[in-house]
Amino acid sequence: MFYSAKTARYHPVDQLPGSPLAGSDGAYESEDHNHAGRQRDGRLSCASLFLCLLFTLVNIAVTMVSSQRTSTHNVTHKNLHLLRRPSQYIRFEEIPRPSPPTPRKFNNYPITFAQIDAADESKVFEEGLKAHMTPIGTVVPEDRRVLLTPTISTIVQFRAIDWGMEDCELHLSLPELGNMTFESQSAVNVELYRMNQTYPLDAAVLSYQSRPPRETKIESIPLARGESTTCHHRFRCPSDSVVTFELALVCTEVNKNTCGLEWWQKVGSTEPSPSVYLTQHATA
Ligand SMILES: *[C@@H]1O[C@H](CO)[C@@H](O)[C@H](O)[C@H]1NC(C)=O
Ligand SMILES: *[C@@H]1O[C@H](CO)[C@@H](O)[C@H](O)[C@H]1NC(C)=O
Ligand SMILES: *[C@@H]1O[C@H](CO)[C@@H](O)[C@H](O)[C@H]1NC(C)=O
């Protein structure tokens, strides 16, 4: 095992007298010498055996202790975030950077899209995948679903990536009022919340009951007829941090039953409308 391999010493076997590999002269040793040699060998093998047993016991003890420790820290979806995430950018902070920073930016797309339903608190939505059959098999495009009704809201999460790009801008672009999945004739607002959740959610178990708490309301965006609506929200995003937003729909009493909004978003899509993504800008 690993521990004994590290600690047990290897004792070379004495060459047998008279064997073809023995010393160059090949002479036999005297009886006395031989006897003493055998005694020494006996003591040596006793010591080796003792060491062997000792290390075996140590090994078993260490294995039991470490297996006990790992069994209390089984890595599952629930505690995956407890694993250490060491920085990938070792000593980058020592590299001089221009101030003000060179203007650079890139887009970053959600790591999670998930729905929760206030009308069915324990409902877990199936992962929004648009699988379809083709002659060569099932194709699962990377489109993700955003679904909003008066009770169903959509949670999106982003992980800020890269080094020194810690100025984030959330882009939310919503379709025009007439283009909603469920036709709606009167005022509709999309509410954007920041949630108090700093590690990735497990969409396979997320329900309204287990949703993270809302932290702040960022904006309430009224949908307009005849034009798409956009919203920009800028915030600090430390490298490798996870930010969570909730999109909720608020409809008037009159259109409550027919009001709803749905779209499928392609990964990497910054198509004007509808979409939700992040732009990361360079920081000094
Ligand atoms: C950890 O996993 C092992 C085997 O998969 C299981 O026997 C043990 O009960 C688990 N421990 C906890 C705390 O979940
Ligand atoms: C709304 O729908 C019409 C027709 O279905 C389409 O031509 C138009 O581009 C859509 N507008 C938006 C903002 O999606
Ligand atoms: C977020 O939740 C944690 C505990 O889960 C709490 O300590 C913290 O104060 C909350 N932050 C805000 C801004 O509500």
Automatic annotation (TrEMBL):
Extent of Basic and acidic residues compositional bias: 30-39
Alphabetic keyword roster: Membrane, Transmembrane, Transmembrane helix
Keyword Lipid metabolism: no
Transmembrane helix is among the record's keywords: yes
Annotated Ubiquitin 3 binding protein But2 C-terminal domain residues: 148-265
Domain of life: Eukaryota
Transmembrane regions: 44-65
Name recorded for this polypeptide: Ubiquitin 3 binding protein But2 C-terminal domain-containing protein
Database matches in InterPro entries: Ubiquitin3-bd_protein_But2_C
Organism the protein comes from: Mycena belliarum
Residue numbers spanned by region Disordered: 14-39
Pfam families reported for this sequence: But2 (PF09792)
